[in-house]
Specification:
This is Kinesin-4-like. The chain is an alpha+beta fold and about 950 residues long. It contains 24 helices and 18 strands. Strands 4, 8, 9, 10, 11, 12, 15, 16, 17 and 18 form a ten-stranded mixed sheet that branches. A three-stranded antiparallel sheet has the order 2-1-3, with helices on one face. The chain has a three-stranded antiparallel sheet with strand order 5-6-7, covered by helices on one side. A hairpin with a 2-residue loop joins strand 1 (about 5-10) and strand 2. The structure holds adenosine-5'-triphosphate (ATP). Adenosine-5'-triphosphate binds near residues 411, 488, 670 and 738.
Length: about 950
């Protein structure tokens, strides 16, 4: 048997040639993977060494033996094989069929099978005809088939092994590469370490061999020398040689010793390096192991993750399937519900049709009813207007100057003081007692529209004022002022105490709050705009309390300011047919004298649009911070000026497009006081004089109105000028009479009460709303332009008259007879300042006289003294229909001054349509042209002259 073995890497492959090998032996060591562990590393397909081959063949023998022992089936075949002495053709059929059994064929060794085939073929060759009996042929075929099967199985096996080997080879190659690269770093060192001892060894060997050869030679030579000891000379020579050799030997021994030392050193170095390398290798191994562990843990992690994901996916799947089931059941239930719903909807449809029918019938009925309601709603507006009218009529009936009296409580620290107030009646009756005359004798009774006791709250007071605020929104001018002695509670009533809470708010805040409320309630029918001005009159000069202007005013800022203010607030000033500018000094405000309610009295004062009560509070607080106050003996912090909060309201009727204008003056007058009692001097005295003078002028105006005097002296003080629009016949006025209950103030309180009582008897006539229709506006505009034209023409005519007079030799101011020329008012007494002032009642008087006149007990309780009355009446009579304003109108703007009117010889008087009396009209020398007449007559029913009504 020929056995050949090759080594591929670690694996051995045995190829058994010759038929003795059992190719189908499944336990063979040649099976892939069954590699002996001690197999040395070799190159691919390296023939095995002799010893290895021997070992392998002995292994094979053992295998064959064991195989033979194991398979009993093979024994039968050997028996058949033993048949060699006979012929196959002569074999009995039973034997052949036994051989052909698959079991025996499977177990038969291949060698036996081959010998059977050879035997049969040989037999057929031996025969003459070469025929093979049928049964033998069958056997032959079977055997050949078995051999073929075995060969193909083996081939497959070999192929698989080959592939495995290839894979392993690749794997080991890569490992080798890795190790090579690892070793590359240390290769050089190892070389050095390995080469050096080898070199040393070789050198040593050569030296030793040389030494030995020399020793040998010497020994031989010594032997020869022994043989020939004949010559002494030679002996001595040899001795010398011996010594030399000895020396040389010693030398060599030394050299050997040093080499030995070197070798030892190299050995130790090598060992150290080996140890280091081992360590390094171990480190690398450990690193690789750690990496391996890491990778393994990662693998484990990922496996765990996979497992987790699998479990979560499973649970999700389960939940989804559950959901699907739920949805399915839900869908089913919905489907059922839908079916039910369909039934129900059909029923509802039926029901709806029925209901629709009944609704139609009801709608028809409702339509009829709604029509009736719409008609009623149409009338509602008219009813509202009627209501407003009625409300104002009631107000008119009550009188347009109303007087409320308020008694201040004693202040903290004044407890136990004696009061002058005896009793307060519900019907506005107030009884005061003179502390000097106890009993009925000293009692005086006064009657006002209402009297508020010391316990009255701010809210209760305002409740009675509220209708006036409503009037403002309806387009009326309203003036509310507080009058009284210093410290009697004027500021408290009008504004409230410092840092007032909402409960303590005075009239100012409450009025504006109420105004906003009313405008909100009416927002569906009216759109309101509200603007506020706050001024003070100090020493007869008007100052804007809300202005942030620091420097002096420009020389003629008024035209521009008025225009911009009016424009900004959409007010038109075509109604102001008499405009007078008064230039006092650059720091103070000018006041315009106005004839229409919607004009601005102090156009130079800043106007602040307000949208809420908060805006108002801020503005009023700012204004009052700027107010002039000082301490007097009577009140620690006494207001030394009249403060006026003016609220301008413009309402647009959203339906009709009309505008309504209303003004509300809220006046906190400076405290009236006796100069001697207030113990003031210097500037304070001057202040007091101005205050008393302006209050006296207010009294003049009110009494002129009381007397229905055609001349009302508004121009005597800035106060009356500013309040003119709210004090005239078209306004509603409310006066608060503030009373200090202290007995020490009895005389002041008494005169205050007397004045107030007289005022309460004044009738101003019917108030008039400043409602404008679109048509009225247009007509007013036309009127204004026509008036301009007339004025221009008049001026021209006047110029011509003047020229004519000059031509005719005009005699001068004193020469002309009064009344001769209708427009030629010359030096009639009214234009002589002295006379004029006398007529107005204060030229010859001092300021304290004014105070006395105002508060004098000598006056009759019904009004002015008879002398004064006649004075006023005289003045009014001599003035005819002219107002005091007309005198101012003739002054050129440059020369205007309040106290010294510059008189020009010829005067044209422009009549205010609202105030023009029929007499003055008829007396007018220049009748308007027919066109103007027509315009005036068409507007006359809209802008009616004021008719003073007596209630
Ligand atoms: N009805 C009232 N209830 C409580 N305190 C009041 C009332 N009226 C006035 N007072 C208090 O009386 C003092 C004087 O009032 P106030 O300053 O309003 O007087 P006045 O008339 O405005 O004085 P002047 O004219 O000097 O400015 C203040 O401390 C005020 O708080």
């Amino acid at each position: 048997m020929d056995c050949r073995m090759w080594d591929i890497g670690k694996f051995q492959i045995q190829f058994l040639f010759n038929a003795g090998g059992n190719l189908s032996n499944k336990n063979s060591n040649t099976k892939a993977g069954n590699v002996p562990e001690d197999a040395p590393l070799r190159g691919p397909l390296t023939p095995l060494s002799g010893e290895e081959r021997r070992k392998a063949s002995s292994d094979l023998k053992n295998q064959q033996q064991s195989t033979t022992g194991l398979h009993h089936g093979g024994h039968n075949f050997h028996e058949v094989f033993q048949w060699k002495q006979g012929r196959y053709a002569d074999l009995p059929g039973a034997k052949i069929s036994e051989m052909m059994k698959s079991n025996s064929l499977d177990n038969a060794p291949t060698q036996s099978l081959l010998s059977v085939v050879n035997g049969i073929l040989d037999e057929s060759l031996d025969r003459k005809n070469g025929e093979i009996p049928h049964r033998v042929a069958c056997l032959l075929r079977k055997v050949v088939q078995e051999i073929e099967r075995r060969i193909s199985t083996q081939a497959d096996h070999l192929r698989t092994q080959n592939n495995l080997f290839k894979i392993r080879e690749e794997k080991y190659k890569s490992r080798i590469r890795v190790l090579e690269t690892l070793a590359a770093g240390n290769g050089e060192e190892i070389k050095i370490v390995t080469v050096h001892p080898q070199q040393t060894k070789v050198r040593r060997k050569t030296i030793i061999s040389l030494f030995e050869e020399k020793v040998k030679d010497k020994r031989e030579s010594v032997k020869e020398t022994d043989k020939h000891e004949t010559h002494e000379h030679e002996t001595s020579k040899h001795e010398i040689d011996k010594q030399a050799i000895k020396q040389e030997t010693e030398k060599h021994i030394c050299e050997i010793a040093s080499l030995k030392q070197e070798l030892e050193m190299a050995k130790t170095i090598h060992k150290q390096q080996c140890l280091e390398m081992q360590k390094e290798t171990e480190g690398v191994k450990a690193g690789l192991q750690a990496r391996l562990n890491e990778l393994e843990s990662l693998l484990n992690d990922s496996n765990n993750r996979v497992k987790e994901l699998e479990t979560s996916a499973k649970s999700k799947c389960q939940s989804w399937s559950m959901k699907v089931n739920t949805y399915q059941s839900f869908m089913d239930s919905q489907f059922h519900a839908m079916r039910d719903l369909r039934f129900t909807s059909n029923a509802i449809k039926q029901e709806l049709l029925k209901t629709q029918k009944s609704y139609f019938e009801e709608f028809n009925l409702l339509e009829v009813k709604l029509k009736a309601l719409a008609d009623a709603a149409g009338n509602y507006r008219e009813v509202l207007n009627e209501n407003r009218k009625l409300f104002n009529e009631i107000q008119d009936l009550r009188g347009n100057i109303r007087v409320f009296c308020r008694v201040r409580p004693f202040l903290p620290g004044q407890n136990g003081k004696q009061t002058i107030v005896e009793s307060i009646g519900d019907n506005g009756q107030l009884v005061v007692t003179n502390p000097a005359k106890p009993g009925k004798e000293g009692q005086k009774t006064f009657k006002f529209n209402k009297v508020f006791g010391p316990a009255a709250t701010q809210g209760e007071v305002f409740a009675d004022i509220q209708p006036f605020i409503q009037s403002v929104v309806d387009g009326y001018n309203v003036c509310i002022f507080a009058y009284g002695q210093t410290g009697s509670g004027k500021t408290y009533t009008m504004t409230g105490p410092n840092d007032a809470t909402e409960e303590e708010w005075g009239v100012n805040f409450r009025a504006l709050n109420n105004l906003f409320k009313i405008s909100q309630n009416r927002r569906s029918t009216f759109q309101y705009e509200v603007g506020v001005q706050v001024v003070e009159i100090y020493n007869d000069q008007v100052r804007d309390l809300l202005s942030n202007r620091t420097g002096p005013a420009k020389k003629y800022p008024f035209f521009h300011r008025i225009h911009s203010l009016f424009k900004c607030f959409s007010f038109r000033y075509y109604c102001c047919d008499i405009v007078i500018f008064v230039f006092l000094n650059p720091h103070t405000m000018g006041v315009t004298s106005i004839s229409q309610p919607n004009g601005l009295a102090v156009p130079d004062a800043s106007m602040h649009p307000v949208l809420s009560t908060t805006d108002v509070i801020d503005l009023i607080n700012l204004g009052f911070k700027n107010r002039t106050v000082s301490a007097t003996a009577l009140n620690e912090r006494s207001s030394r000026s009249h403060s006026i909060v003016t609220v301008h309201v413009r309402g647009k009727d959203l339906k009709a497009g009309n505008y309504i204008y209303g003004n509300l003056h809220l006046v906190d007058l400076a405290g009236s006081e006796r100069v001697d009692r207030s113990e003031v001097t210097g500037d304070r005295l001057k202040e007091a004089q101005h205050i008393n003078k302006s209050l006296s002028s207010l009294g003049d105006v009110i009494f002129a109105l009381a007397q229905k005097s055609p001349h009302v002296p508004y121009r005597n003080s800035k106060l009356t000028q500013v309040l003119q629009s709210s004090l005239g016949g078209q306004a509603k006025t409310l006066m608060f009479v503030q009373l200090n209950p202290d007995v020490t103030s009895y005389s002041e309180s008494l005169s205050t009460l007397k004045f107030a009582e007289r005022v309460s008897g004044v009738e101003l006539g019917a108030a008039r709303s400043s409602k404008e229709g679109k048509d009225v506006k247009e007509l007013m505009e036309q009127m204004a332009s026509l008036k301009d034209t007339i004025a221009k023409k008049d001026e021209e005519i006047e110029r011509l008259h003047l020229l004519k007079d000059l031509k005719n030799g005009y005699p001068g101011i004193d020469g002309e007879q009064p009344g001769t020329g209708s427009l030629r008012y010359d030096s009639s007494p009214i234009y002589r300042p002295k006379t004029r002032n006398r007529l107005l009642g204060h030229t010859e008087k001092t300021v304290s006289d004014h105070y006395n006149w105002f508060h004098s007990d000598k006056r009759s309780e019904t009004g002015s003294t008879d002398d004064e009355k006649s004075e006023i009446t005289d003045a009014a009579l001599s003035m005819g229909t002219e107002t005091d304003d007309s005198a101012e109108y003739v002054h050129s703007p440059e020369g205007v001054s309040l106290g010294k009117p510059k008189v020009v010889p010829k005067v044209r008087v422009l009549q205010k349509p609202a105030q023009a009396s029929p007499t003055s009209k008829s007396e007018s020398p220049r009748a308007p042209s027919p066109a103007i007449k027509k315009t005036l007559s068409s507007s006359s029913n809209l802008v009616k002259p004021v008719v003073r009504k007596k209630v």
